[in-house]
Automatic annotation (TrEMBL):
Signal peptide: none annotated. The keyword DNA-binding applies. Pfam families: HxlR. Residues 24-122 form the HTH hxlR-type domain. This is Transcriptional regulator. InterPro entries: HTH_HxlR, WH-like_DNA-bd_sf, WH_DNA-bd_sf. One of its GO terms (molecular function) is DNA binding. Keywords: DNA-binding, Transcription, Transcription regulation. The keyword Transcription regulation applies. It comes from the Bacteria.
Amino acid sequence: MDSTAPVETASDPDLAYDVFARNCPSRTTLEHVTGRWGALTLGALHDGTFRFNELRRRVDGVSEKMLSQTLHALERDGLVHREAQPTNPPRVDYRLTPLGGQIAERLLTLIHFVESAQDTVGEAQRAYDSRDGLGGR
C-alpha cells in the first residue's frame, strides 16, 4: 500500500452520517443497538412479539428498570413497536419494526459468530492471563 495515499476517514463518503465523527447522531443509535441490553433485547424480539415480563425472562439478568429504559430507547429510535391493548389489566406487547428486524438479523449473525468462537476466545483469555505471571495486567 502506498503510504502517501490519502486516508479515507468516513466509511462511505456518500452517506450523510459518519459514526466516527464525535457529534454524529448515529453514535447514539449505535450505542442503543450494540449495548449489552439493546443487542440482547433486539435479538430476543427477533423471535416474535413479547410482553414485558416474557421479554425480561428471555433476556436473563436484565433488571426491570434497564429493560424499560432499553425498550424506550429502541422505540424512540424506531426499532421497536410498543402496542398497549385496552384490556384490564392492561396488556403491552413489544415487537420489532421492519428496521429493527433488519438490525436484529445483522446482530444475530454477530451473536452466533461470537458464540461459535467462544472456545477460541476462552483459550486466548487463559493464555493472556497466564503469560509472564502478569495475571492479565
